[in-house]
Design goal:
- With about 675 residues, the protein is of the alpha/beta class.
- It has three domains: about 375 residues, 4-Layer Sandwich (Metallo-beta-lactamase, Chain A), CATH 3.60.15; about 150 residues, Metallo-hydrolase/oxidoreductase (Rossmann fold), CATH 3.40.50.10710; about 90 residues, Roll (Ubiquitin-like (UB roll)), CATH 3.10.20.
- The chain has 15 helices and 26 strands.
- The strands form five sheets. It has an eight-stranded mixed sheet with strand order 7-6-5-3-2-1-20-21. It has a six-stranded mixed sheet with strand order 8-9-10-11-12-19. Strands 15-14-16-13-17-18 form a six-stranded parallel sheet, with helices on both faces.
- Helix 10 links the parallel strand 17 and strand 18.
- The longest helix has 20 residues.
- The termini are far apart.
Length: about 675
Amino acid sequence: MQTSNSFTKNPPHQSRRGEEGLLKRDSKETGRVGALEGIVAHAQSPRVLRKKPEASYPTKTEHKPPANLRPRKKFTGKTPAGRNNRRFQMPTAGRLESRYNGAPVPLLSEKCLRIVPLGGQEEVGRNMTVFEYGNDIVIVDMGLQFPEEDMPGIDYIVPNVNYLKGKEKNIRGVIFTHGHLDHIGAAPILLKQLSYPPVIARDFTLALIKHKVEDQEKGAASHLKLVRVKTLEDKIRLGAFEASFFEVEHSIMDAMGIILRSPAGSVVHMGDWTIANDPVEDKQVSYKHLANLPRPTILMLESLGALKKGLPPSEQEVHQNLKNLIRTVPGRLIIGTFASQIRRISYLIEYAEQMGKKVALEGYSMKMNIEVAKELGYIKVKNDTLISVNDIHKYPDKQIVVICTGAQGELNAALSRIVTDNHRFIKLQKNDTIVFSSSVIPGNERAIQRLKDNLYRKCDNVIHSDIMDIHIGGHSTAQAMEEVLRQIQPTYFLPVYANHYFLKEAAKIAHRIGAPPQNVFVLDNGGVFEVDGNGAGKMLKEKADTSYVFIDGLGIGDIGHVVLRDRQMLAQDGMVVITVIIDAKSKNIVGNIQITSRGFIHVKENFDLVNETKRKVEKVVRDNTSKGTSIDWDLVRNQLREVVGQFLFTKTERRPMILPVVIEV
């Protein structure tokens, strides 16, 4: 495969002084903004800037749009009348099936750095990336992905580690950027599968991982080899890699970015990040020092905010709004937020304490996280401020603040139980105030809308971000991504940790501010990016296996896309069980044919259809059996599926799953 050129003008092995980097360009390189990109850049620019940028930014180099923007028409399996004649819903099944073609990833060349994302490149969640040099492997994050609506019965999804099988002894450590579940949720399962390599993180993240591992399997936390990042000045040797760390702003405590130095180049991995607007704590985080790393440098930038315009809400204003709500609401204040928003929860507790109010925490993860934060000294609160939720009736309504989980509409979370009157101690009242201090996780829109509808029916005061600035997400905007790219000036840019279209938009941002297209790589899950000893980067055509590993109850990976397809069919069209008893000698049907329907039709109200189905079954048995010969069971069952399935489709335009049960007596 042909290698790409470096972003730098001089070869990567030359001195830093002679290098230009990703974003430094002389006047000859500066070009006009293309029409399409200019429109997009203008739309993404902020309407109001609270703070002036430190310096003016250069404009973009030329970037030609695709010659043909009109997509081809694809066959969808639908007839002109709009009926879908496919036996199975192929687009859904195809999405769940792995794009892994079975071609093995070639052995790693000498003096070569390899980067393989095992998740997080085509979804929100399942974040995990493998770094290899020689016989040394470092892993960043082990996150889970929550199931989507077409994954019935699935609890969550974890990365596939088939690529690492046989290499477990080469894993020098797993570094966790922060404690959100999409970054640590798979740790209890994958750390065990990989023989418990060292776990490297800051205090709060380590404590959360330890709790997760212990919850998964009692006593398993004793197997963990914990390496604490005491300060961000720490450096840790991991075989050929040297890991160091830097501060990032995110919505959870102890988040950090990672620098992995190797003989073939330096990798900067930001984890999840943002740049705060008008922060409560008056400090500015800068990444300019990362421009001085040994070249070539590879920037892996979380890109979930690539489509967000302008600046995030003012942090000062958000906290002032929350403080005003705590002070002025007429009755109880119930705040739904993420259990991981420890810093914001600590501020809420502090504000309530200042006003003499009592705070009740509700939700298992909420209570656990706050307890961990208290143990680490991150939250300091008077003993009488926090009360149990079953004691809230002992105080006047105006004195109660409840902070709970469930703002994403999760069925069993605290807020959902409250709104459905299934909570033992909290019954909603008209003068209660409900606050959604959280963003909408992609995929949860419908659940949140249903939750809001139900809350509006029961309460007069429901506050969310469409009404008032009460939440700041932990992810950047397009403007912040431009700023970070300019500060770090990487040789290669790899957008990560988002759906594919976000990654493509992040690549466009880099192009707009001068990144040569051949040095920006958008990887799919399992994609392999390599930098050789001369600093030349390329993407291999082979991919690692990143097929879904579904967690269903106690099962790990025993549910595949075939099982999910069956579940989808059952949910969509139901099932029909046909029970037939055949005499071994005469080959005649004994007794009545039993037709059982689940999720397809109500049998008692469709006698005519059931009787016609029985006649079809009789004909299939008669045509496929004869006296004096043994019964071909597979033939009879397959014919029953085909004939009855086609008959029911012609009558109902539905395709239930047909389960024939043929018994010989």
